[in-house]
Amino acid sequence: MTLDTREDIKLSNAQIAWRAAQDIEDDAYVNLGIGFPEMVARFQPPGRQAIFHTENGILNFGEAPPAGEEDWDLINAGKKAVTLKPGAAFFHHADSFAMVRGGHLDVAILGAYQVAQNGDLANWRVGSKGVPAVGGAMDLVHGAKQVFVITEHVTKDGKPKLVDTCTFPLTGVGCITRVYTSHAVIDIKGGRFVVREKLAAMTMDELQAMTGAPLHTDGPVAELTVPTL
Amino acid sequence: MDKTVGSTADAVSAIPDGATVMIGGFGGSGAPIELIHALIDQYQATGGPKNLTVINNNAGNGRIGIAAMIDAGMVRKMICSFPRSSDPRAFTDRYLAGEIELELVPQGTLAERIRAGGAGIPAFYTPTAYGTELAEGKVIAEFDGRHYVQERWLKADFAIVKAQLGDTYGNLTYNKAGRNFNPLMCMAAAVTIAQVSRIVPAGDIDPEHVITPGIFVNGVVEVAHPQQEEELIRAGVAYA
């Protein structure tokens, strides 16, 4: 049986990032993982200004400078050139990860290969081949008050990414609090997936069919609405 | 007191075969390219040092810096968190051929292990990596209902770092996010050599602005216009 993954209605990556950005409060201290999560910074609601942290020792950095104006001692964890905002600070790596593990960040947002219903995350490698590289992923999942995942709801070949138990190597145990997908917003609460929002154009049964573990509700499920981006 | 060293060649000349060497930087930011290249020059002239264990966040990029050390065959083992880069060929080829050893350490754990090494703390507990393959074989303990992994300090025979200003007492300042691992590595090595953009007389760095106090630094060498790894990579430079 081929799973209907409702590719026809799914949100774009920008829309997933936009939706996650709506839940970041003004003045929050936030770490965005390398790659897709970095996109969240573009979609802060007007009037809100989060302070972004990067593992290599900057608080309150901003967008990339124009080409040709890069300062290669002013980069983010993805080794891309950034700029500073007023009120920025530099610090060494041990202080940087004290901010992470010490519970000083409000939000960390990461990508995922798999998220399990108990909050386990797998996002650093998919097998034992090649060169393993972990970076700060295993640190970032510990300490932030909320750890969000943004992800497609299913893999490119239609397999669930929200699963009963992760089959890929773990990044952290029981660490994820909320998942923003291409089709829904789902909290992880008491070892269960609890649906908060879903696209109006699909049914709960359709969402369940795309998900590798039981979905629950503990109140009304709101409509997941995002702008055209 | 005068910790000034005359040349990058002199600065690295005492590093022997088999040494454990911490190299500062995060990618190219804060990386002591000139000291690394001086070490490669020494190897090419004398056949040593080789069989080095290198500690850095990454494992080199392109054909310069740590990647050029690996290409030259000087490195036996890398201890790092992220051995990938825009051009990771040097490490990847040797690793997949079984010619270089890798100890993969989560980035925050790597930083804290180095800090602990410099601070005289032989081990500590961290939540990082609990329940993952990187915690296999390690001591686990429960504190206040959560599980933590015991990690050990990391020390080195030598550290080579990049700073901005250095004075004759070895006090250092850094340039922006080029700070990263450098201050930690200064603390954790038996001998620390810093390349700085400018050496100034003692007293010229405001004590309020010193980031690494000179007690952690053994030698300071001036490299007035340091190269940036990122620019060398974009220019396709190979150091051989």
UniProtKB/TrEMBL annotation, chain A:
Segments forming a coiled coil: none
Gene3D superfamilies in alphabetical order: Glutaconate Coenzyme A-transferase
Lineage top rank: taxon: Bacteria
Keywords: Transferase
InterPro entries xref list: 3-oxoacid_CoA-transf_B (IPR012791), CoA_trans_fam_I (IPR004165), NagB/RpiA_transferase-like (IPR037171)
Entries under Pfam families matching the protein: CoA_trans
A molecular function (GO) term: CoA-transferase activity
Family the UniProt entry places it in: Belongs to the 3-oxoacid CoA-transferase subunit B family.
PANTHER family: KETOACID-COENZYME A TRANSFERASE (PTHR13707), SUCCINYL-COA:3-KETOACID COENZYME A TRANSFERASE SUBUNIT B-RELATED (PTHR13707:SF57)
Protein name: 3-oxoacid CoA-transferase
Organism: Pseudorhizobium pelagicum
The organism's taxonomic lineage, starting at the top: Bacteria, Pseudomonadati, Pseudomonadota, Alphaproteobacteria, Hyphomicrobiales
From TrEMBL, chain B:
GO terms, molecular function: CoA-transferase activity
Gene3D superfamilies with a match to the protein in the record: Glutaconate Coenzyme A-transferase (3.40.1080.10)
Alphabetically ordered keywords of this record: Transferase
SMART domains, A to Z: CoA_trans
PROSITE patterns: COA_TRANSF_1
Superkingdom as given in the UniProt entry: Bacteria
UniProt-listed Pfam families: CoA_trans
Family, per entry: Belongs to the 3-oxoacid CoA-transferase subunit A family.
Protein name in the entry: 3-oxoadipate CoA-transferase
Lineage: Bacteria, Pseudomonadati, Pseudomonadota, Alphaproteobacteria, Hyphomicrobiales
